[in-house]
């Protein structure tokens, strides 16, 4: 039964292949590779246990079956110290064999990378979005975690409201997000790409849509991104300036980037993102849809409806936001 369940699980998981890199069986990072090694190690160990148990079971079924003409009751035994010792010692050995790599990898994955130039990011989970703050770089963003290829990125994982779980299936994870507690882990990506991230802990109505992306780039592209993120975004045209005013009056209360008690993402570099609210393609149409009726896009979101602006004001606000880059 165990084997069937595991095989089904494997089938279900491998069915994810091609869906935005959600496959844990084809990792693209060394944290994910370590976790896959552990999965394989315990899976094949259990296969071995299953094979031995089922062989003995079938042997006993056949060898000691009831035969025609033999009516005597077999000799009854009560307890056997030898057998008791054997089936106590074998599981202890198996558990130890499982525990050693599990504990080693657990410490390894929680360990801070030792390289001096390693990047440290503070990740915060909110209902239903993710904030990424790069230590010492003055970069704060949301929904999209940019990392350079081949480098371990140290993550410090915080929670603000309820339990969440930070998970990037193709790179590794998952790590619980617990308010009042700081969890740590690291990730790296072997090749450039966009890796889908998920919240893996039921956290409310918007849980299934609490997505984010890890964007792994070559060092040069990452450096370019950093430089762009550090440059202030300035409203250029008259319409953008008008939009900025509307933003100050209507949005800044929640989206004030430097306020420690913020309840909405920092939108300072909103124009550089590839998604709206982490799920919709990044275009003006979708931004309007999101602003006018956020809960139709993401149930349970704290974002209020901005449905009271004149069409001209809405256009200016969207123009301003899309050009903050
Ligand atoms: Cu956050 Cu589920």
Key attributes of the depicted protein:
325 residues; alpha+beta; Immunoglobulin-like; 2 domains; five-stranded mixed sheet; 9 helices; 40% helix; binds dinuclear copper ion
Explain the overall architecture.
This protein has 325 residues and is an alpha+beta fold. The chain has 2 domains: 1-64 and 78-230, Cupredoxins -  blue copper proteins (Immunoglobulin-like), CATH 2.60.40.420; 238-322, Immunoglobulin-like (Sandwich). Helices cover 40% and strands 19% of the residues. The chain has helices at residues 2-14, 30-63, 81-110, 219-230, 238-250, 252-255, 284-292, 294-297, 311-322, and strands at 119-126, 129-134, 139-142, 144-148, 153-159, 164-168, 172-177, 183-187, 193-199, 212-217, 275-276, 280-281. α2 (30-63) runs antiparallel to α3 and α5 (238-250) crosses α9. The chain is elongated, with a radius of gyration of 27 Å. It starts with a helix and ends with a helix. The relative contact order is 0.11. The structure holds dinuclear copper ion. Residues 125, 128, 164, 199, 201-203, 207, 210 line the site of dinuclear copper ion.
């Amino acid at each position: 039964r165990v084997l069937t369940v595991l095989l089904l699980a494997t089938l279900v998981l491998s069915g994810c292949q091609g869906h935005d890199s959600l496959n844990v069986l084809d990792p693209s990072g060394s944290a994910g590779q370590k976790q896959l090694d552990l999965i394989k190690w315990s899976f094949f160990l259990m296969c071995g246990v299953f094979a031995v148990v089922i062989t003995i079971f079938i042997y006993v079924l056949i060898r000691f079956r009831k035969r025609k003409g033999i009516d005597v009751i077999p000799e009854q035994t009560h307890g056997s110290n030898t057998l008791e010792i054997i089936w106590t010692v074998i599981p202890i050995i198996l558990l130890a064999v499982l525990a050693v790599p599990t504990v080693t990898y657990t410490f390894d994955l929680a360990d801070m990378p030792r390289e001096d130039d390693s990047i440290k990011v503070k990740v915060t989970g909110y209902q239903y979005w993710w904030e990424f703050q790069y230590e010492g770089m003055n970069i704060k963003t949301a929904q999209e975690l940019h990392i350079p290829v081949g480098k371990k990125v140290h993550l410090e994982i915080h929670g603000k409201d309820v339990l969440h779980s930070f998970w990037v299936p193709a790179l590794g994870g998952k790590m619980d997000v617990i308010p009042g507690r700081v969890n740590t882990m690291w990730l790296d990506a072997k090749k450039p790409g966009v890796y889908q991230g998920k919240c893996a802990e039921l956290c409310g109505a918007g849980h299934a849509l609490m997505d984010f992306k890890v964007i792994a780039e070559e060092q040069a592209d990452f450096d370019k991104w950093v430089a762009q993120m550090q440059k202030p975004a300035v409203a250029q045209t008259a319409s953008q300036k008008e939009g900025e005013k509307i933003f100050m009056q209507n949005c800044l209360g929640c989206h004030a980037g430097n306020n420690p008690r913020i309840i909405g993402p920092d939108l300072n570099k909103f124009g550089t993102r590839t998604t709206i609210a982490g799920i919709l393609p990044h275009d003006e149409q979708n931004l309007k849809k999101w602003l006018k009726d956020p809960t139709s896009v993401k149930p349970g979101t704290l974002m209020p409806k901005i449905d009271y602006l004149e069409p001209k004001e809405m256009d200016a606000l969207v123009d301003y936001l899309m050009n903050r880059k």
